[in-house]
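Entry — protein

Goal — fold tokens:
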Amino acid sequence: MYKHDTMTPGEVAHRLRLQPQALTRTFAALEEQGWTKRVPDPSDGRQSLLIITATGRQALVDEMRPRDEWIAGVLEQELTPAECDLLVVAAQLLERLSEVDSAIARVEA
């Protein structure tokens, strides 16, 4: 969700391979913390959209920073420049594949 402006609860659940009902408490807790908010879907009044707030984005950055620093250090120590270049290409391919999955989620939702 952090890469998208808005998503329905169903889209989030699909990406996580879960049922939306399984995430009800999680969505409520995120909203209670002020990390997300729900707004009505302007194109479908039966749906709501989840939006990550500025506070939520900052919490995510803070949570991911130690992991990002660790992986950057490991990559620098363990991989050759050519291997790092290959990893960049692989990451781009995985990103493309994830976008195909998100398009499927929107169609199925």
Observations:
- Helices lie at 9-16, 24-32, 54-78, 81-108.
- The first strand starts at residue 6 and ends at 7.
- The beta strands are 6-7, 36-41, 44-52.
- The chain is about 65% helix and 15% strand.
